[in-house]
Design brief:
By secondary structure, the chain is an alpha+beta fold. The chain is about 30% helix and about 20% strand. It has an eight-stranded mixed beta sheet.
Length: about 350
């Protein structure tokens, strides 16, 4: 494992993320960092094995994401962030490039692997997006493994919930209030056009006064794979934000915002979901390639750095692949858990 160099190119392979909002170095022990790196490498290994064995990009994305969903280190599946009730309420989506097939689920509370369920929606359901109880009923129909909600709840996420509740009680913004884009007039009240919440401390002190800390949106997971047939598939899975309102849905399951794939590229996002929804980030990257004729790297730079950074709190990042196998990793935070692997099977991972 080594730090990821910028923009490698793979013949076939995959790129993954384990979320932005990484733990600050001061709170990252050697053991914990090693555990993150090992899990990222395991995820890449699972996705690579699927492709090397002749599997599809769908297989690779689901296998890679499942490893991170099962790990309590990441904010997806077991170890998901908790909503204000203390419940793990999970979202996931998957999209395949060649025919724009897509599947998404939101607010599922007992599905062991939400990305697996999203794939079943894509492949076995006439609809693209199922939510809540209906999605859970469909999972049972499909014979998908379930676990009681307590199985997803970890001590670390309970602590993050308590911290977020304490900040809220002190009068700080809840995670789903966001500052306004420069061209939108300020709104009254507490809606998502509000502009008085300031920039989160992405370096991660997380003290009183910070509307968000890395723990609030750490660890969403995603993968984009390019298989030997040249097919691109992207997927994303998350527990969303700590202390989110009951029923809040982020960008991760929203096709075009948190996940998108076409014949040009595949994109999986992580970050402050309300921004990613309002800017249709994943689709915007694809659209810039199509309409402006720019490269994946340039499209990602324009969206993640020029566009989102101009909105002050549009924090986040993406991993992506284009049809030629160029890997793109872009983030505007202190770091992003990430990695990629090509045909050789040597995983490259990075955090800061
Ligand atoms: N984008 C996710 C959400 O807003 C959070 C994350 O990426 O960590 O739900």
């Amino acid at each position: 494992m080594t730090e990821s160099p910028d923009r490698p190119r793979v013949g076939w392979g995959l790129v993954i993320h384990g979320g932005v909002g990484v733990l600050p170095r001061a709170r990252m022990s050697e053991d914990l960092e090693a555990a993150y790196r090992t899990c990222l490498a395991d995820s890449l290994g699972a996705g690579h094995r699927a492709l090397a064995g002749g599997g599809s990009a769908e297989d690779s994305v689901v296998e890679a994401i499942r490893v991170m969903e099962d790990s309590p280190l990441f904010n997806a599946g077991r170890g998901s962030n908790l909503d204000w009730r203390g419940v793990a309420s999970m979202d996931a989506s998957i999209m395949r490039g060649p025919d724009l097939g897509a599947g998404a689920v939101s607010a599922v509370t007992d599905v062991r692997s939400p990305i697996d369920l999203a794939r079943r929606v894509m492949e076995d359901c006439p609809h693209v997006f199922l939510s809540g109880e209906g999605a859970e009923a469909f999972a049972r129909e499909m014979g998908i493994e379930s676990s009681p909600n307590e199985w997803f709840v970890t001590p670390r996420r309970l602590e993050a919930l308590e911290a977020a509740r304490a900040r809220e009680a002190e009068g700080d913004a809840t995670p789903n209030t966001v500052s306004r884009p420069p061209d939108v007039p300020a709104a009254e009240g507490k809606g998502n056009g509000r502009d008085d919440v300031g920039r989160p401390d992405v370096a991660g002190t997380g003290g009183a006064g910070d509307p968000l800390t890395p723990e609030d949106f750490a660890g969403t997971v995603g993968a984009v794979a390019l298989d030997r047939e040249g097919r691109i598939v992207a997927g994303t899975s998350t527990g969303g934000m700590a202390n989110k309102k009951w029923g809040r849905i982020g960008d991760s399951p929203v096709i075009g915002s948190g996940t998108y794939a076409s014949t040009r590229c595949g994109v999986s996002c992580t970050g402050w979901g309300e921004y990613f929804i309002r800017n249709a980030v994943a689709h915007d990257i694809d659209a810039r390639m199509e309409y402006l004729g720019v490269s994946l790297a340039e499209a990602a730079r324009q969206v993640i750095h020029d566009k989102l950074e101009s909105q002050l709190t549009g924090l986040g990042g993406i991993v992506a692949l284009d049809a030629e196998g160029h890997v793109e990793l872009a983030w505007n935070t202190a770091g992003m858990y990430r990695g990629w692997v090509g045909p050789g099977g040597v995983p490259e991972v990075g955090i800061y």
